[in-house]
Amino acid sequence: QVQLVESGGGLVQPGGSLRLSCAASGSIFSRNLMDWYRQAPGKQREFVARVANSGFTSYVDSVKGRFTISRNNAKNTVYLQMNDLKPEDTAVYYCNGVPTFGSWGQGTQVTVSS
Fold first, then answer.
1. Could you tell me the sign of the dihedral formed by the alpha carbons of 88, 90, 91, 97, in that order?
2. What is the DSSP letter of 74?
């Protein structure tokens, strides 16, 4: 079973940047689509971004122009570059494939605050 480990979160001021990584213990090539999600306190998990093996990407409207998703299948890793961060981006960020791998990682906390 593929395990997912998210990292790269932290505390950042509004307008700052972070780069999240999602490392898989096995191949992600089998998942044409890889997604990033986030869950803010008291809210449901929401879709953030998607990347296909072809390089096609899609984003939730609230992050378009600020976030960039990418993947490196050779390293079994998916990335999320987050720029111009806003307080409303504060959440725990998770990645997974489509269909999902058997389990979710622990996520990585992103806190945007002055």
1. positive
2. G
Strands 77-82 and 67-72: antiparallel
Q: Which residues of 68-94 are buried (b: 16+ CB within 10 A; e: fewer)?
A: bbebeeeebbbbbebeebeeebbbbbb
| Other Cβ atoms within 10 Å of 53 Cβ, number | 14
Show the tokens assigned to 30.
């089998």
pLDDT score of 1 = 87
Q: What is the pLDDT of residues 13-35, one digit of tens each?
A: 999 999 999 999 988 888 999 99
Whole-angstrom CA distances from 114 to 40, 63, 85, 86 are 18, 20, 11, 10
